[in-house]
Specification:
Length: about 120
Amino acid sequence: VQLQASGGGLVQPGGSLRLSCAASRFTLDHGVIGWFRQAPGKEREWVSCQSTNDGLTLYSDSVKGRFTLSRDNDKNTLYLQMNDLKPEDTAVYYCAADDDPDTPCFSWSSFDYWGQGTLVTVSS
């Protein structure tokens, strides 16, 4: 399984970015898919995830209302649309996936497959 994340960069506060995560040898319409991030000197934290059990998309309180997780099954690609970005959103963002739809979204250690990370820097 390979997950290839892209789309990071430098953006001013209030700006937007869309991250992509292309999957190979893993179909996004099963299991659990999600995004995590890790800021310098901090632990990896959960951002958003979706399970095929119920199709519900969950967001952490810090990004709710600003970030949107979506996927294109035809392209087998996961996205994270990030709007109204803040300096505290600065981090390396990782996409993740797992075959088990019951994998807890909040626990990064429960995910088996990871992308390489893409850096998002929010600064003026």
